[in-house]
Design brief:
This protein has about 200 residues and is of the alpha/beta class. It has two domains: about 120 residues, P-loop containing nucleotide triphosphate hydrolases (Rossmann fold); about 80 residues, no CATH class. It has ten helices and five strands. Strands 2-3-1-4-5 form a five-stranded parallel β-sheet, with helices on both faces. It starts with a strand and ends in a 6-residue tail after the last helix. The relative contact order is 0.21. It binds adenosine-5'-diphosphate.
Amino acid sequence: MNIAVTGGLGSGKSTASRILAVAMSAEHLDVDELCRQQMHPGNLGFKQFVEVFGNRYLLPDGSINRQLLRQAVFADSRVKNDLEKILHPIVQRQVAEYYVQCLAAGKRLVVEVPLLFEVGWQHDFAVCVVVYVSEELCFNRVAARDGFTADAIQRICAAQLPLSEKCKSADFVVDNSGTFVSTVKQIAWLGEKLLGRESDGKCAK
Ligand code: ADP
């Protein structure tokens, strides 16, 4: 079984997906991390990046100037789109290939996919879980974690579907507005539910 965990910026995707993976004895992948890895020199994403952008965003040592690129992505939607056009197909393929390996090894897979519905990957997964918190709480947790300004947080959130919309498309919603303990309890319940579905043969993928 493969399970996608999504949500909003700072809603708790990373926290929840890692707990779910432990609860289900599953492998765990983080799509953001795979994208970051692809941007390292020598990887396919980096190669295609240089083909599209030349050396505009490279440091003298040949690696990507992440700060400059981040600013460009914020300022210009064409840069963001071009970057996504490079990375998304590569990473989507990587996740699919990894899942084939998991299936062969009899393992389950939990994947943290921040923009699951925005990029239309929901059909790649047997189950889609959305991690919900209120906008205000999201804001406070991201500010505490990343030190981003209110303006930066608002801009990132504006580029995503509202969390309430994502919840409507979810198979399951985890409400991460409470304590860690409350979240762990919900995920323990969810893990058991999904394992039950699996043993009933109700998970298609
Ligand atoms: P995301 O992966 O969606 O960006 P994280 O899982 O990294 O979100 O959570 C964002 C921040 O909020 C982190 O610093 C995390 O430790 C904190 N956090 C997550 N869940 C809770 C919770 N239930 N209570 C308090 N803080 C939380």
